[in-house]
Amino acid sequence: MHFQSLISSTNWGQHMAKVNVNSSPALAPRSLTNTAKPEAPSEPLSAKQVNHVGDLWVLANNCKMETFSFNLTTKHLSNLQAKIGSVSAFDSICALLWRAIAKVREGFEPQIITVCRKDPCHDDSNVLGNNQIIRSIKASFLVGESDLNKLATLIANDQDQVCDERNKIEAAVEKDNGCTDYIMYGSNLTFVNLENAGLYELELNGEKPKLAYYSIQCVGDEGAVLIFPLPHGSAAENEGEPRYLVNLTLPEGQVFKLKAELKRAALL
Fold first, then answer.
1. Which of 49, 63, 224, 228 is most buried as measured by Cβ atoms within 10 A of its Cβ?
2. Comparing C-alpha atoms, which of 246, 247, 250 is closest to residue 223?
3. Which InterPro entries does the protein's record reference (predicted)?
4. Which fold has domain 2-8+43-121+128-264?
């Protein structure tokens, strides 16, 4: 399955216009007398305006992007979390990769990242909607020289619902009569948690997938990291068993350096 990272209210509206919905009876209009004008929301940190692309939905990057993947085993996770402490595997992986990418960017390290997680309040009713929480996290220190525990704690603790930028993104996309286009994946270095995406719940003729993953097209220049669970059974205690698949899309010139950094960390 592929995601498009461009957010276009024009295309979204055209899609929804084709859907027949049994709407509720219209309510009588209410008086607007003495109603204060709502304050315009600030621009979201997690999305960036781009030139209008119309129906093409193809982003013109400033550099060539490259995608690669690697597995994290039970042993990798145990070693990583022994250094970091009591945060989730996802937060630990984000901290590790944020610091590694900061090191290879040589003076242009990402101070702001975007983190996407499943909304715990979403009811899984298969209704079309935005069911992931989108937050931006900013570091006030040098990421490439920081302690992993400090980074992981910053990521884990920034889960206040107030930080969710979905409403800001929606307001930004809808302004100017919906003629403004934005990107979200790759506007900042973006981490996407797909642990609860239900990738292995599909069953055909009694068989479940051996491997399932998503990819994202039109990622912005800052790059994106998708973190997937891998299927595992009763042998999960096997330290060599793959537990997570990490899929990265980054500027081509950074991939070789990042692989070298991951090898030094004994992850490749």
1. 224
2. 250
3. CAT-like_dom_sf (IPR023213)
4. Chloramphenicol Acetyltransferase (3.30.559)
What angle in degrees, to the nearest 10, is found between the helix axes of 89-104 and 74-84?
80
* Residue type, position 260, single letter: A
The rounded distance, in Å, linking the Cα atoms of 50 and 254 is 23
Pairing relationship of beta strands 2-4 and 215-217 according to DSSP bridges: parallel
Buried b (16+ CB within 10 A) or exposed e, 85-96: eebebbbbbbbb
CB 229 within 8 A of CB 243: yes
Identity of the residue numbered 137: I
Average pLDDT, the chain: 81
Considering only residues 190 and 126, tell me which one the structure prediction assigns the higher pLDDT.
190
> What average pLDDT does the segment 12-39 reach?
45
pTM of the model: 0.80
Rounded-to-integer distance, Cα 190 and Cα 248, Å: 10
Tell me if 179 sits within 8 A of 52, measured CB to CB. yes
Stretch 57-69: mean pLDDT: 90
pLDDT digits (tens, 9 = 90+) for 230-250: 886 534 456 677 789 999 999
Conformational region of residue 227, where left means phi above 0, alpha means psi within -120 to 50, and beta covers everything else: beta
